């Protein structure tokens, strides 16, 4: 075949190859890949199956997974002469028949260098340190800055998931374990968790951990995860201070009815003085009655998960409160009815990964019903708006629609 940019391909420093998708035959290899084998006097593999050291590996099937976004980077053990090299293979389609693969090595990843390179993949400058977890071998590698965060030497940082979990506060451990297991079981790309971790001096600090799938197996299984943790103790201290200043719902962490009324009244006053639109949404978390027969603990978990999911979808200026066991009120300042409907549709149509999170907690976006009321058409006080929104949501429950507008 004719290879575009032939010279660039052959001289690129990263080992690379071109393979036929259907047959798996490697039809071209660049100098870096050829030299990898020539340097040890070994013959380069000529097929995808031989390269992967797996006679059952199907390149066409893997390319389909790449197209669907299920696989981004494959882990592989490349047989080079008498040794195996741990590597990652990234595939990019060239045309309908051919794929470009390039190979990167992480066997001897130097985190002291990685922390100052693109390997951070936009982890933000506030990150405390990078780690990599090889899931199958249960091996964790930490950067020096994680050692500093934990107040220990690099050699004393956790080198396995069990060692890491032994440092996590016992009250935070179950949720953390569930988050990571869900990430792996559902073959997700990202996860985020907050928990307390014990430093070398036995002091606990709050950290935020963000992980990203780095490489996968042929079936999309997660093989390596890379991410970072940062110290968020100051933010947590501020949250506790604010919690002492206001009243929050214990189950969901949202404002309760009394605290919400103060905020709602203030926003209504601004809308009245500035002649800006304002919309109120009454959200029924159990419009289809799916939670009614659940045990209390599971029902509470479903309510908590759905409420936090909605909270993450709204804007910073919006105000969300829990006003009954399975009811929320959402105030949307400076928002017309049309814009409110767009916002509500956003959380009524969750992305695939968001839907999996909801299902994991026995909750569902299909169980939601939202009633909308606008100021001043449907009420000139908070109480009137709330009543109009409540009437709308009751109408929606009866008619089986997800969004109902006050009449």
Automatic annotation (TrEMBL):
EC number: 2.7.7.65
InterPro entries, A to Z: Biofilm_reg_signaling, GGDEF_dom, Nucleotide_cyclase, PAC, PAS, PAS-assoc_C, PAS-like_dom_sf, PAS_fold_3
Domain GGDEF: 276-407
Domain PAC per the UniProt entry, residue ranges: 191-244
Protein's UniProt keywords contain Transferase: yes
Family matches, as SMART domains: GGDEF, PAC, PAS
Domain of life: Bacteria
Annotated PANTHER family: BIOFILM ARCHITECTURE MAINTENANCE PROTEIN MBAA, DIGUANYLATE CYCLASE DGCP
UniProt name for this protein: Diguanylate cyclase YedQ
Organism: Marinomonas gallaica
Organism placement in taxonomy: Bacteria, Pseudomonadati, Pseudomonadota, Gammaproteobacteria, Oceanospirillales
């Amino acid at each position: 075949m004719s290879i575009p940019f032939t010279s660039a391909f052959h001289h690129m420093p990263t080992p690379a190859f071109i393979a036929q998708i259907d047959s798996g035959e490697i039809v071209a290899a660049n100098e870096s890949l050829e030299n990898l084998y020539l340097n040890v006097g070994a013959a380069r593999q000529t097929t995808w199956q031989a390269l992967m050291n797996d006679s059952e590996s199907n390149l066409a099937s893997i390319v389909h997974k790449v197209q669907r976004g299920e696989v981004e980077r494959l882990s592989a053990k490349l047989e080079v002469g008498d040794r195996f090299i741990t590597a990652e293979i990234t595939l990019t389609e060239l045309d309908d028949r051919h794929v470009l693969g390039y190979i990167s090595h992480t066997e001897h990843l130097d985190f002291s260098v990685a922390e100052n390179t693109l390997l951070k993949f936009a982890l933000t400058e506030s990150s405390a340190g990078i780690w990599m977890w090889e899931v199958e071998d249960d091996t964790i590698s930490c950067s020096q800055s994680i050692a500093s965060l934990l107040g220990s030497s690099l050699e004393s940082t956790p080198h396995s998931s069990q060692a890491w979990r032994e440092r996590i506060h016992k009250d935070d451990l179950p949720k953390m374990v569930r988050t990571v297991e869900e990430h792996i079981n559902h073959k997700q790309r990202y996860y985020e968790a907050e928990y307390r971790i014990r430093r070398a001096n036995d002091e606990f600090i709050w950290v935020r951990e963000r992980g990203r799938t780095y490489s996968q197996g042929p079936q999309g299984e997660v093989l390596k995860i890379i991410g970072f943790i940062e110290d968020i103790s100051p933010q947590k201290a501020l949250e506790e201070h604010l919690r002492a200043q206001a009243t929050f719902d214990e189950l969901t962490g949202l404002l309760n009815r009394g605290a919400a009324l103060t905020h709602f009244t203030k926003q209504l006053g601004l809308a009245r003085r500035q002649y800006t639109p304002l919309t109120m949404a009454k959200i029924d978390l159990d419009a289809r009655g799916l939670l009614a027969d659940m045990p209390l603990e599971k029902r509470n978990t479903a309510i908590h998960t759905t409420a936090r999911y909605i909270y993450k979808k709204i804007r910073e200026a919006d105000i969300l409160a829990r006003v009954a066991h399975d009811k929320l009120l959402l105030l949307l300042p400076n928002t017309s009815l049309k814009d409110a409907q767009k916002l509500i549709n956003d959380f009524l149509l969750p992305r695939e990964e968001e839907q999996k999170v909801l299902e994991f907690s026995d909750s569902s976006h299909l169980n939601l019903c939202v009633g909308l009321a606008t100021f001043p058409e449907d009420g000139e006080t908070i109480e009137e708006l709330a009543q109009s929104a409540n009437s709308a949501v009751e109408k929606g429950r009866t008619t089986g629609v997800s969004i109902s507008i006050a009449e």
